[in-house]
Amino acid sequence: MPLAQPLPLHDLPALYRSVATRYREGTRTGRHFVPSKLKRDPATAVVLRQAAATPGGFGHVVDLGCGRGQLSLALLLAGLAERVSGYDLDMVRVQDAQRAARGLPAEYAAADLSRPELPEGDTLLLMDVLFLLPEPAQHALLAAMAAAARQRLLIRTLDPDAGWRSAVGLWNERLHRTLRGQPPFGLRAMQLPRMQAVLAGLGFDSTVTPCWEGTPFPNVLLVATRRG
Predict the structure, then answer these.
(1) Do residues 138 and 76 make contact, with C-beta atoms less than 8 angstroms apart?
(2) What pLDDT does residue 8 have?
(3) Where is the Methyltransferase domain (predicted)?
(4) Burial code of 47-81, b = ≥16 C-beta within 10 A, e = fewer?
(5) What are phi and psi of 165, to 5 degrees?
(6) Which one of 40, 77, 138, 141 has the fewest beta carbons within 10 angstroms of its own beta carbon?
(7) Which residues pair with 222 in a beta bridge?
(8) DSSP reduced 3-state for 223
(9) Mean pLDDT across 138-162
(10) What local confidence, expressed as pLDDT, does residue 185 receive?
(11) The domain 9-226: what is its CATH number?
């Protein structure tokens, strides 16, 4: 698939509709969730623009904790990824992604991210997962991602030092965990300088971009690029 030119904002709604159309045969939740998530989550546009600004795009994208796969499929349909491999623990969401990916160079499967080795790819995505893990598991996952990424890592996480936004974000995550029947505590958002230092030790230089436009949350996107 040829790569698209960098995407101006007025083209994004058409792309989002194209992605959402692929979920019409999926679960009722997926049909409603995907178009809303694409439009309302500021990270969608930030990641797409990051890919559009990267020479050659993101190549083979490995989407860890992919959920229903709408972000990595958006990259693929925009011509900003050559191939997608997505993994998630929730098999219902994975099945939605599998249906949506029919006919595309994309595969989705159920997998546990705590395993020590991850599939290799040019770009590894990890969106809203890291802070859900215990701190030792976070370090192990970062090391596994660094070993598997040929070029870059994109990690969306919470900034614990963003003042009132951090308080709102942690409260929101605890609420959602409670509604899902999960323990509301145990969230461990790693401080961003600490995460960048860990990645630097693994051979990656990184930058952090806010991903909270239009929301009260402390979401940020960390982009780490392999040195050399």
Answers:
(1) no
(2) 46
(3) 61-150
(4) bbbbbbebeebbbbbbbbbbbbbbbbbbbbbbbbb
(5) -60, -40
(6) 40
(7) 155, 208
(8) strand
(9) 96
(10) 60
(11) 3.40.50.150
Long-range contacts: 71-74, Cβ < 8 Å, 24+?
71/38, 71/43, 71/44, 71/47, 71/125, 71/127, 72/106, 72/125, 73/19, 73/22, 73/97, 73/100, 73/101, 73/104, 73/106, 74/15, 74/16, 74/19, 74/38, 74/44, 74/48
Query: Is pLDDT at 200 greater than 80 in this prediction?
Result: yes
Please state the φ and ψ torsions of residue 78, each to the nearest 5 degrees.
-80, -5
Question: Which residues face 107 on adjacent strands?
Answer: 85
Say what the pLDDT of residue 35 is: 95
* 175-186 exposure pattern, b = at least 16 Cβ within 10 A, e = fewer: eebeeeeeeeee
pLDDT given for residue 183 in this prediction? 64
List pLDDT tens digits, range 19-65.
999 999 999 999 999 999 999 999 999 999 999 999 999 999 999 99
Which residues lie below 8 Å from residue 154, measured CB to CB, with a gap of 6+?
A: 47, 50, 123, 124, 125, 126, 127, 221, 222, 223, 224
The alpha-carbon radius of gyration of the chain (Å, integer) is 17
Q: How far apart are CA 80 and CA 57, in angstroms?
A: 5
Rounded distance between C-alpha atoms, residue 169 and residue 159, angstroms:
9
Strand locations in 136-203, DSSP E?
149-158
Residue that has been written with the tokens 């491999």 in this structure: 85
| Amino acid letter, 206 | S
